Amino acid sequence: MPWIQLKINTTGATAEELGDALIESGAVSVTFQDTHDTPVFEPLPGETRLWGDTDVIGLYDAEADMNEVVAILESCPLLSVGFHHKIEQIEDKDWEREWMDNFHPMRFGQRLWICPSWRDVPDANAVNVMLDPGLAFGTGTHPTTSLCLEWLDSLDLAGKTVIDFGCGSGILAIAALKLGAAHAIGIDIDPQAIQASRDNAERNGVSERLELYLPKDQPEAMSADVVVANILAGPLRELAPLISVLPVQGGFLGLSGVLASQAESVCEAYQDKFTLDPVAEKEEWCRITGFKR
Description:
Layout: E1 3-11, H1 12-24, E2 29-34, E3 53-61, H2 66-74, E4 86-90, H3 95-102, E5 106-108, E6 112-116, E7 127-131, H4 143-154, E8 161-165, H5 171-178, E9 183-187, H6 191-203, E10 210-213, E11 224-230, H7 233-238, H8 240-244, E12 247-259, H9 263-270, E13 274-276, E14 280-282, E15 285-292
Parallel strand pairs: 6-7, 8-9, 8-11, 9-10, 11-12
Antiparallel strand pairs: 1-3, 1-4, 2-3, 5-6, 12-15, 13-15, 14-15
GO biological process, one term: methylation
Pfam family, one: PrmA
GO molecular function: protein-lysine N-methyltransferase activity
């Protein structure tokens, strides 16, 4: 069925309170959208991170009386009579189906293809990872994931152990295994990511070579020939002492989830123990790689 969308522009300081007002006025959902399309990063636990200029968007049932909704909102202390807003009707869609229709097989590097589990592989002789991300991050469509996949494809992983720190859908760990790694370990704070990684590993026939852990369950002593962490710049800096001990001497490290403006500070957190390569950049996102001295 169709829906009615009400959009109000505000600031990050007031967006959350205004969102509560929209819910009280009858909105079935509220989303926050950056007016200037500024990248948004995963908040820390308990933190709600918004933007300087924010559109607060409420979704209402098609039968809702929007004149009554506006009247209710005009009594909100954050708004005034005649406040600026935009109301439009939007058609309902099968968003999952639309996403599935637009997720196509993608090639990374020379050998590797990431293929949606519901599509045919384009090259049966390639290294094909069949992927259904579920609710976890990681399809290959984001530049950070793409950068990591291209890096893994460039390495000789035969017989190696790989740690995927923040494994999400398991895409990087599974790709490493399909590229020749003997063993992989995936770690994530989200139980849904662990489940998605497990499902994708079974789908690709590599589940026996993939260990998956929540941080509280991971072994105290772990090491690997290759460590990849596609998370965020803040956690990469904060967790540098933990991540730095994971690669063996001479082992490789790959970090992503970093904007170009953040690359220098992340490099500084690792340069004491690693010889770093030139930073690779794609669509304002970066990948930092090197080996442990």
